[in-house]
Design brief:
The chain is of the alpha/beta class. The protein is built from eleven helices and eleven strands. Helix 5 (111-124) packs antiparallel against helix 11 and helix 9 (184-194) crosses helix 11. It comes from Streptomyces atroolivaceus. Pfam families: GFO_IDH_MocA (PF01408), GFO_IDH_MocA_C3 (PF22725). Residues 160-244 form the GFO/IDH/MocA-like oxidoreductase domain.
């Protein structure tokens, strides 16, 4: 449930958010979302390559921080758009500085790193929120609300695309770890929310080509999840099918506009920072998902 004020008028000062990273996702989503306001303001951008940071910051008139420490001085919250290993190395420093965190999934490249992030957030008592994109779309929320009224005994799902075959999103960490770490958090989160908490997960296949997950849920239901970033499709396919004694319930992103996610994400993060009340889609939830990913990777 949203914690944002019901009015369209933003009642607080904009949250000054610093952005770490200057890759394709920082350019395509983070920078323009944070700069759009009125809930947030892009206060600075920092990346290991200053020229890349300048390309991201320039269109919005945001300054380029000369160092990570300068970024922290310029903001009250930090958004990450970097590989998981980099996020996990820097996020505890953000928490220790008392800044809120807008985190990418997965929290880290492995369970130990993710645990360190979640522990730092909890220890310092700062607000955190995960960019689980689809969770902020009205269609997703309508699906999850309806799923909560159903008895589910089984589910099938998939998240498939061809971004790993080439292009700017075929980044080194995605090619190394494959769809399990990149797409897995999204699909496991949807199944965990729509069916019941996942208590165990097994994986077969190669995460760099195709991975099949079998999940057992707290309510006794079983679900399947197919993941691949290396199949040729005209566009990404995300679909969840729920089955039980009643009619099937289907969630499909084919016709949704992902641009509708960003204002919701921005407003809920800023509201959490200003009120001190998180949404529950936070670092602790990210650690739960990472434990499932680790369990799958070990099978």
């Amino acid at each position: 449930m949203s914690t944002a004020p019901p009015s369209d008028i933003w009642p607080y000062e904009p949250v000054r958010v610093g952005l770490v990273g200057a890759g394709p996702w920082a350019r395509a989503m983070h920078a323009r979302m944070l700069a759009a306001g009125p809930e947030t303001a892009l206060s600075a951008v920092w990346a290991r390559r200053p020229e890349a940071a300048a390309e991201v910051a320039g269109p919005y008139g945001a300054p380029v921080a000369a160092s990570f420490e300068e970024l922290l001085d310029r903001c009250e919250a930090v958004a990450f758009a970097v590989p998981p290993a980099v996020q996990a190395a820097l996020a505890p420093r953000v928490a220790a500085a008392g800044r809120a965190l807008l985190l990418e999934k997965p929290l880290g490249a492995d369970l130990d790193a993710a645990n360190a992030v979640a522990e730092a957030v909890a220890h310092h008592g700062v607000i955190s929120q995960l960019v689980l994109t689809k969770r902020y779309h009205p269609a997703t929320r309508a699906f999850l609300a309806e799923a909560a009224t159903r008895e589910v005994t089984g589910a099938r799902s998939c998240y498939l695309h061809g971004a790993f075959l080439g292009g700017e999103f075929a980044t080194s960490w995605r090619l190394e770890h494959g769809a399990l770490l990149d797409l897995g958090p999204h699909l496991l989160d949807l199944l965990d929310s729509a069916v019941a908490p996942i208590v165990s997960v097994r994986a077969t296949g190669d995460p760099r080509r195709w991975t099949e997950l079998t999940c057992e849920h707290e309510n006794g239901a079983v679900s399947q999840a197919s993941l691949s970033g290396a199949v040729r499709l005209p566009r990404a396919r995300t679909r969840v099918e729920l089955f039980g004694p009643g009619e099937e319930l289907v969630y499909d992103t084919a016709d949704i506009d992902h641009e509708e996610c960003w204002p919701v994400l921005r407003r809920e993060f800023a509201t959490a920072v200003r009120t001190g009340k998180g949404t529950g889609i936070d670092a602790a939830h990210g650690l739960h998902l990472q434990k499932l990913l680790d369990q799958a990777a070990r099978t």
